[in-house]
Amino acid sequence: xxxxxxxxxxxxxxxxxxxxxxxxxxxxxxxxxxxxxxxxxxxxxxxxxxxxxxxxxxxxxxxxxxxxxxxxxxxxxxxxxxxxxxxxxxxxxxxxxxxxxxxxxxxxxxxxxxxxxxxxxxxxxxxxxxxxxxxxxxxxxxxxxxxxxxxxxxxxxxxxxxxxxxxxxxxxxxxxxxxxxxxxxxxxxxxxxxxxxxxxxxxxxxxxxxxxxxxxxxxxxxxxxxxxxxxxx
Length: 233
Description:
CATH class: Alpha Beta
CATH architecture: Alpha-Beta Barrel
Shape: globular
Strand order of the largest sheet: 1-2-3-4-5-6-7-8
Distance between the termini: 11 Å
CATH topology: TIM Barrel
Number of strands: 8
Number of helices: 11
Structural class: alpha/beta
Radius of gyration: 17 Å
CATH superfamily: Aldolase class I
Order of helices and strands: EHEHHEHEHEHHEHEHEHH
Strand content: 15-25%
Helix content: 40-55%
Largest sheet: 8 strands, parallel, barrel
């Protein structure tokens, strides 16, 4: 089953909660990213949980294993359902995150950010990058081997990660835009239909809903597209 996560990016706490209340029962999943969490802290997660919402806490943790483990335990205590760590943090860090999570909190390893190109990675990592796919495959293979619950990857990578990993690995896909939508700062983007066909479990959608003139109608249109793609798959 593929579900939609609405990203509460660009909001302050009161704005975010007002938006959630506006959508009411239309969405059960929300992403809290670094900006909102920095502004509002744990309270935003507590408020969302109090409204019966599932929370994707997208902090992309990347630190020494003990620090990441402590942060994962803190997130689990907040009743977070999905939590991100950076795959480039390495095996020991991923293992620490895995061991610190409880059954309710699933750990996702971020592979390659959808804002990055191969040339960007060459600058950061100081070596030739022949393809984004190879880098994502390397990180995803390590994450699966360690035993974290899933990965964050673009649709372009999800299309071959799914058959390679099978159904047990969660794939969360950012960079989703309806056809003709603004790409923003994302480079590797795709439509909801593309994501469903690629086998993504969760589609993260932000500005296409949160900045729409009618957010509820925009979300319903995306859900309808997802439902149609699932029926055709």
